[in-house]
Amino acid sequence: MASALDRIRVGSAPDSWGVWFPDDPVQVPWERFLDEVSEAGYDWIELGPHGYLPTDPARLTDEVTRRGLKVSAGTVFTGLHRGPAVWESTWEHVSEVATLTQAMGARHLVVIPSFWRDDKTAEILEPAELTREQWGHLTQGMERLGHEVREKFGLDIVVHPHADTHIDTETHVERFLDSTDSALVNLCLDTGHYAYCGGDSVKLIETYGERIGYLHLKQVDPEILADVVKNEVPFGPAVARGVMCEPPAGVPELGPVLEAAQRLDVDLFAIVEQDMYPCEPDKPLPIAVRTRAFLRSCGA
């Protein structure tokens, strides 16, 4: 048994049940997700796509509490690189999610940058590289978002590097961190997305430890990833091919990542997020049970 990682709080999310959208006929019903995530041995969950779980705080509180669950974060999608013109629509979306997140007693808001390539249709939406001006809009917009979310909701934003977005590779992630104020903006390090984009999670934790505010745990299958990179497969179809795999079958090794996070000596959420959209409804629970057992073997 590995040494106890007592600063790491493990949870899971609708994503690990194949849930990417608020409403989709191929996804499991939210009641089943809550039942099974509790059965699998997790204490913490994220809200997932806004509208998938009940948005009435009283009802959701009842649903999660009676299953022994607590909420760690909400998730929002933003396109702040587009400049001040998108602020009002962004804030409307963020406020809606942040209101529920705050009501559920959570302290974090996971912020995902908008996709330059559609994850469902694979349509190219805009260039993969930002201009200098767009980088300025992105970093300043995230700082403003961090300030406003903290002032109005008491939440901390954690920005999630993500495949097929403008914050993805080591170069882009480091540029983003070097260009933003740590008092306002920190990172949700997703180990699977970072590996998917060629990054080293342990190195990032050891180099930018003070900026790591939250973790998503997932792994990629190196063989499938190699084919995805070679053939420039978009993220959505890559997930359908199984590029995100059950630990410990893929990379990065999660034990060293968790140990590096523990050495930061701060309390961190580590939320399991194995992308499986779409998937058969009976597939997630056995994987979730095995993954929880594996993380316990790592000390988490």
TrEMBL record:
Domain called Xylose isomerase-like TIM barrel: residue spans: 34-274
Pfam families, alphabetized: AP_endonuc_2
Signal peptide: none
InterPro entries from the UniProt entry: IolE/XylAMocC-like, Xyl_isomerase-like_sf, Xyl_isomerase-like_TIM-brl
PANTHER family the UniProt entry points to: HYDROXYPYRUVATE ISOMERASE, INOSOSE DEHYDRATASE
Protein name: Xylose isomerase-like TIM barrel domain-containing protein
Protein species of origin: Streptomyces zinciresistens K42
